[in-house]
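A note from the maintainers: we've had questions about how concatenated examples are separated. There is no special marker in the raw files; a new sequence line simply starts the next protein. For clarity in this README we add a label.
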Amino acid sequence: MTDDPFALFDAWYREARTTEINDSNAMALATVSADGQPSVRMVLLKGHGPEGFTFYTNREGRKAAELEAMPRAALLFHWKSLRRQIRIEGPVTRVTDAESDAYFATRSRDSQLGAWASDQSRPLADRATFESRFAAMQARFDGGDVPRPPHWGGYRVAPERIEFWLDREHRLHERRVFTRNGDGWDEGMLYP
């Protein structure tokens, strides 16, 4: 086995991309508010490498407010079909506007329009209101490109700790943990 957590992540992720039926790039994102209230939700991994793990969102919603107030997060990938999970913890930073623009341009047109129409995480009186706002965005950008909204962009979790969990029979699981040490990694194992 490799002693490079990114190589191990890549190998597990490649396998998950071929075995998981839906959203193999789905990861639970855990944040905490300024007053210590934890919150977790699913987001989609849109890029990864030694610099970190990247996802995109509306920067006016709850998760963004929590990340701005307390710029640390935990991620969890769980691939049930492989009986594996990966936990990642570390500080969070915004990605550059250029990175956000480049990713936004790859989204489907309806997803782009939805980013303009949604006041993510805010109360919504009824579905018709959102659908009306979506239709208004369709009309606004009809015949042209949809630019990235100024309130929408990416975040990157820079890992300080990565744990690989492998299910074993009788709950005798295997857990490998990598902890950042300067420019390298310390590796160890944990009891199940």
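[label: protein 2]
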Amino acid sequence: MIHAIRLKAPGGADQLEAVTIELPPPARGEVRIRQTAIGVNFLDIYQRRGEYALPDGIPGVEAVGVVTAVGADVIGLRAGDRIVYAGAPVGAYTSERNLPAWRGVKLPDGLSDEAVASVFMKGMTAYMLLHRIYPVGRGTTILVHSAAGGLGQLVTPWATHLGATVIGTVSSDAKAAIARTSGAQHVIVGRDADFAGEVAKLTDGRGVDAAYDGVGGTTLAKTLACVRPFGVVASIGQSGGPIPPIDVSELGPRRSIMLGRPSIMGYVNNADDYHAAAQAVLAALAEGVLQGKGKPYRLSEAVQAHIDLEAGRTSGALILVP
């Protein structure tokens, strides 16, 4: 029997319950992993709310652990290997689990389990945004909402390392200090701040090349006003609530901007993209470009972790420790 956190019904954090379940041996092409650190993402909250499918009722899309058994036809992994994984199939909130062997990425000895679990999935999201959605480099200016959040603290230093100028938005002065420490050159403070007006001032009216909006709600429409002609807005979440319908005329022809809704789960379903992003994240972590730090909770404290993340009480990453 293994320990798991399962969803009783879509809804609030109180719908999560601790259970014990039976785990069969790994099937052909699978490995069994004893998990040591589980990454917590806002995607887990969307799963809990019922906005995304949760076939077995167990949320979670990433973790670090040790391989304890391998199924038939598994090549490249063996018992005792320390690995990290992310993506489908969902179900990371467990003490042990089986998963497709191709998902497992071996870890170098120099990286701790907690550090990797705090950055892996969000780091691959940052990689996707900075390299696939809009190639960021020297001379690029970007806007990062929630710059003190888990994803913001990875996008910001990575973009800065690539030579970009980062404008971040945060809700408080305390979070502004975090964003600046992460490398944001300009920080706009306040939930009700006129960030479009501030961006115009900071860019001499030009606008940013790319903007990353995980807030959603009414914020996305305002984000469109921050981007230069032929720039890109990536809508990557809706922590601030559902996104109202957007008239296509808001994008062009006057503005001539591109709006994308990229899915990291879709991106990492391609094995080549997945492993390229994974190696880039681990390299950036090893080189110190990304800092792996997260607030730990016991697996049994998953309810509190969801409450804290959803309420915006935390900055940076959260991890569950079985």
